[in-house]
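User: Working on a comparison across species. This one is ATP-binding protein from Parabacteroides distasonis. Can you predict its structure so I can line it up against the others?
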Amino acid sequence: MCDLFVMGSSGTGKSYIATALGYRVCQKGLKVLYANTSRLLGQLKATKVKGSIL
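Assistant: Here's the predicted structure for ATP-binding protein from Parabacteroides distasonis:
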């Protein structure tokens, strides 16, 4: 498993590069989680409460 966080100023192509990389990974049969910070933190909180993993 490998984690990737893409950070930068508005309009610098973060979404574009993250989508392109995610698409290539999916083509290889692997799973991708594409989330903004709010969604990611919400999911992490929910899994902590349930005691499970994403």
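For your comparison, note: The chain has a mean pLDDT of 86.

User: Helpful, thanks.
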